[in-house]
Specification:
It is a single chain. The chain has about 140 residues and is α+β, with helices and mostly antiparallel strands. β1 and β2 form a beta hairpin. The radius of gyration is 16 Å and the shape is globular.
Amino acid sequence: MAWTLRGRAVPYALTGSGLTKQGTPSTRLGFMQTLHAARTRHALIPIQGFRGPVLLLADADDQLAPSPISSAQMMHELRHDPAPHERRIYPRVGHVVLGIPSVPAQVAGERGRSLGGSEAADDAAHRTDWPLMIRFIRQN
């Protein structure tokens, strides 16, 4: 099974798994182990040709993917584009950073896999990122 686009397989990172400090499975740890493998480089989000405003919200406690690293790579690729680009990193927030304020966050994924963060940290980020996203869209 694979992600497809127009009937062709889309490259993606094969991640394996590791365990968080709490002992729950984490694909982020597996992803970090394969980050520099050739097959992983092909799975990076191809943003280098994109032109236009970009808002990147990254969550440092994401247990599914290293979003701060991925977002830094994307910002590097966008460095020559004159459009506005913003990147925010939320230090104690898990995988689902963007969300509607005061709606309970999901901190556990399928099969007990940790998404990272906590309901309190995720909700605090939602109170910040929701108006940030609205402002970014209106201004750009």
